[in-house]
Amino acid sequence: MTDTINKSEVYDVIGIGVGPFNLGFAALVEDVPEINALFFEKKTQFDWHPGMLIEGTTLQVPFLADLVSMADVTNRYSFLNYLQTHNRLYRFYFREDFHIPRKEYNHYCQWVTGQLDACKFGMNVKQIDLRDFEGESLYEVVVENEHHPEEENRYLARHILMGIGTVPAVPEQFQDALGEKVFHTADYLYKKANCADAERIAVIGSGQSAAEVFLDLLEDQAAHGYSLHWYTRSKGFFPMEYSKLGLEHFSPDYTSFFYQLPQEKKDQLLVDQDLLYKGISADTIADIYERLYQYSIGEDDPDIHLQAMSAIDRIQPLGNKWELRGFQQVSEEAFMVDADAVVLGTGYKPNLPDFLTPLHDFISLDQQGRFHITEDYRLVIHGTERNHIYIQNGELHTHGVGAPDLGLGAHRNAVIINALAGREVYPVRSINIYQSFGAQNQPVTN
To answer: Are 146 and 123 in contact (CB under 8 A)?
Structure first.
């Protein structure tokens, strides 16, 4: 026996999460008549990494990596149209900088969400199951209203689009220490005030977030008088790869090349390519160095310590402080330091949502528990060939370093929209760069 449904109440796709990638999808799909879409977001409004919207920080990609432009520059939800709508176009023009403030990017995305009725905020997806309705398999999406938790609504869709992003990654040995004085960079602006009266602050990690936190604390050091220590297990405080040809790794061409490789090769490449997506921007390094230089004028010697090649293994309470135990991996020396506050720039990890629990037996995973994902961004699901779950920014292990990059978001959305519509809504071109990543065979001549 199957349940009865009203066909007009079935969505072609329901998106879970409204971050930049699903928001870009909503903007691009709004005028596609074949696709009826709806999006749910647990938060009550769009806010992009609010704990890291430090004054003066910018995107690490040019403004063209907005929600839509790399798929459709004429789309009304482009960043340039946002500027024109807010009478900021000339100001942006005279600024002559492709990298926009994060604060402005966040406001731009909020401007887009305010125009898209399909994006519903304060709606927490609790469960997704695949059920049979009058002979048609559909996903049933159970949603709780955050404003009225007693209300539980059910929606039906042929396909699901997961855009739930990543969550802060905190090593297991640090988790017991988490609190008001030991916290991830994701919570930095919320808990920064807790550091104001500290005698010593430690920052752990060498990515962009750790560097921005260190710089922000460095700029406030003179006012508060704390000592500042920065540790990383990386070989140094190195810049992210930002050469022109290096940037071509963030292209559809490289994504296609990477996808065809054996998984063993992919995993090794990702380890070797960490500076493509895990380093620090050269501008941030320059700003840090300039501040350190200014502090050193007149033989001033503030208590600042930077130490690479060093893994912090343990954070444990020491009275009202925290004791950090570490190991210098090259000189093989153990060391110990105490701190009043510790900021963890330990990165992010994929978010494996509980709402997929009813489908666990059907979703194919590799030996490391990661999703098997098709080239067009579908999870491999056993038992159905018609109902797909597409994924946004969960395919680093299958599609390469461009997975979390804002500049490839519109391309990925174009691929998914074309697949759902069954036609080329947005052109997807195969040659976009100058170099070839695979071997190019040419005729052999005598």
So the answer is: yes
Q: Is 166 exposed, middle or buried (0-12, 13-18, 19+ CB in 10 A)?
A: middle
Place of tokens 């090349």: 257
Cβ neighbourhood burial of 69 (10 Å; 0-12, 13-18, 19+): buried
Residue pair 349/167 in contact (Cβ under 8 Å)? The answer is yes
Give the helix/strand (H/E) hosting 228: strand 227-231
State how far the Cα of 151 lies from the Cα of 37, in Å rounded to an integer: 22
Structure tokens at 122: 């304060």
Q: What is the pLDDT along the chain (446 residues), one digit of tens a residue?
A: 355 555 568 999 999 999 999 999 999 999 999 999 999 999 999 999 999 999 999 999 999 999 999 999 999 999 999 999 999 999 999 999 999 999 999 999 999 999 999 999 999 999 999 999 888 899 999 999 988 888 899 999 999 999 988 899 999 999 999 999 999 999 999 999 999 899 999 999 989 999 999 999 999 998 999 999 999 999 999 999 899 999 999 999 999 999 999 999 999 999 999 888 888 999 999 999 999 999 888 877 789 999 999 999 999 999 999 999 999 999 999 999 999 999 999 999 888 889 999 999 999 999 999 999 999 999 999 988 899 999 999 999 999 999 999 999 999 999 999 999 999 999 998 899 999 998 876 666 65
DSSP letters, 348-406, are: EEE---GGGGGGTTTB-B-TTSPBPB-TTSBBPBTT-SS--EEESS--HHHH-TTTT-G
Establish how many alpha carbons lie within 13 A of residue 93's alpha carbon, considering only the half-sphere containing its beta carbon.
7
Give me the domains of the chain, ranges plus CATH numbers. 7-165+351-421 (3.50.50.60), 170-240+278-344 (3.50.50.60)
Q: Is 239 left (phi over 0), alpha (psi -120 to 50) or beta?
A: beta
